[in-house]
Amino acid sequence: MASLTTAASFAQSSPRLETLFPNQAPIEAEAGVLTRVPLPPEVVAECRPDLSDLRVFDGAGREVPFLIDTARSLEESLHVSETFRPRVLDVKESEMRPETGPSTRREQYRLQPPPAGTAGTVWSLGLEGGPSRFVLRVEVTALLRDGGEEPLVTAGSVWRLPRGREHLELTLPELPEATAALLVQLEGEQDGYVNPRFQLVSRRRLDSRLRSEIPLTILGFRHEGSKTLVDVDRPRGLHLDRLRLSTSTDSYHRAIEVWDAGPGRQDEVLGQDEVLRLPALVPVVDDEFPIGPATGDRLRLVIENGDSPPLHDLELFAVTSSPHLLVTLPAGGAQGALLRFGGGRAFRPHYDLAGLTTGLPATGHEANLVLSYRDPARFARGRLGEISRNPLFDPTPALAFAHRAGADLATSSFSHRRTLVANPSAEGLNRMDLGLADLAVARPDLADLRIVNGEARQWAYLLDTRAAFTDLELEVGEPSTEAGRSRYPLTLPASPATMTRLTLESDIPYFDRSYTLMGWFDGEERRLAAGRLVRRIGDPRPLTLRFSTSRIDRLELEIEDGDDARLDFSSAIGRFPVPRVYFAAPAGPYVLLLGDGEASAPQYELERVRDVVLAVEGGPVAAGVLEGNPDQGVVSRWSAAEWQRILLWLVLVGAVLVLAGMVFRLAKAGP
After folding, report:
1. Candidates 2.60.40.790, 2.60.120.260, 2.40.400.10, 2.60.370.10; correct CATH number of 211-321?
2. Helix (H) or strand (E) holding 141
3. Prior bond to 496 cis, omega within 30?
4. Which of 322, 335, 464, 492 is the least buried, fewest Cβ under 10 Å from its Cβ?
5. If one looks up domain 80-205 in CATH, what number appears?
């Protein structure tokens, strides 16, 4: 009963849902009909990346269940397609030889039109086969049954370049009903004729995703040798499918890499591609490239210039698509319905509609489910009105209800402590990443972690053991060599530590050797990884050894050298998982306590509202140096209850002594 009362008090003191969102927009939709409402970039950019801080309210202020079509990639869509391979009815080839410059070859193909009954369908003309490199100007004309002609494409282009880069498809306008044949003319300056195969493909895209281009803010440029490094701001909550590069440089062909950057980043390449603009009979422009999902608040672009000057007047655009809201507004509440969003203070709702979603590609029953919420023909179309501020928004910290100190704690059983200073936080939540030194003295399950204030009262916290990683350098000791094998001792930044991968840097341009990576914990030996260390000629990238997450206190790398000289490593970087601690508390000083092998895990009611806590943004905590606990083994302070018990016993003992003295005096005085 006590736990139910506590949970109820938490629920009653938590903020009302409609007060959590700083922005709102009216929903214009028909009542009682399942409606598809596009969410524009202005809405998405204000929300968390998973769109969890977004709700629908009807005209009476009641929450309305909804579904978000979260397949946001431009490449991920559903098509109904038909392929037709036309018969070639006639071919003409000719060559034009100017007095100066290369020859131009022209090919004309008269193709069979699509079969009857497909009028009104939009087709794409695709080329297959041909040489490994060409750039062609394309004209497509519909030849009509009455002898007339209707141009369909007058200045199209198709091309194929080395490294698999090609554009071999043209979208045709709607074909006239009286089309008797298609005349396709190809013209280019390549050696020899192309002689391609043709196909006509019709695709009906079922989800009406809207392509959006959003200019990105460039934070800074830096030139390092032949590379240009560009730091770009990533708008909060915006899912990026692709990037587009714009420059005033007339001709370029550059390799480009995109990395995650800023707080929360992942140490992985998000995208690698080439961008180009080449002058030709038909200009070739390929300035757009896909990237993977990012977690940091910035992007870093690395542009390889070679010996060419950097690109001029560089601009970058985020290419994304608009997700859609699927909602049915009640008959009595459609008027005045609102979408409230933003703030990052609400957690993801769990509605029954979520069970409809499924991924792509899909077949059978799953395909029918996809069609149920992706086919625009099955929905009414709605729209959002003008975005404004939510007058009900309450800027009071969302977790102010949890700012209560807990039970008293005897601090003498903990071996280490770290002072903390919680800075003012907009939502009343504080966060800190534990360091390797903390993890080395704590129990592996972190059951002995406590946060207390100056009165030794506990403050409830939540742990996220998979929140982040840190990359730290290991000391590479002097290797020992015996019988063609070299052993490299690697010293951890703190011991023991939990580690998940090792990255090695070496200036040696080429090697190919077998290796074994061994780890020890509490004297027990285990093999973490084995295989071959391989560096190809001209590949300067570091070597990464991945293995399952392991707790170790010693590490050794063994390499089979044979008769070659041993390898030298300029650095060794270890990746370590770093748990994150969240605690709801006002600004001020606190103490983190660690190192009690007998402690059991605490039980805080804050765990019951974990989703609420982790849905809001936490402010960073300033942490002092880890040090020994001066109170260890000393009863330095007692709780109020302990003091009351001690005083009670002192009073009782005193009373007994007084009574004993009185009895003794009476007995001595005699009758």
Report:
1. 2.60.120.260
2. strand 134-144
3. yes
4. 335
5. 2.60.120
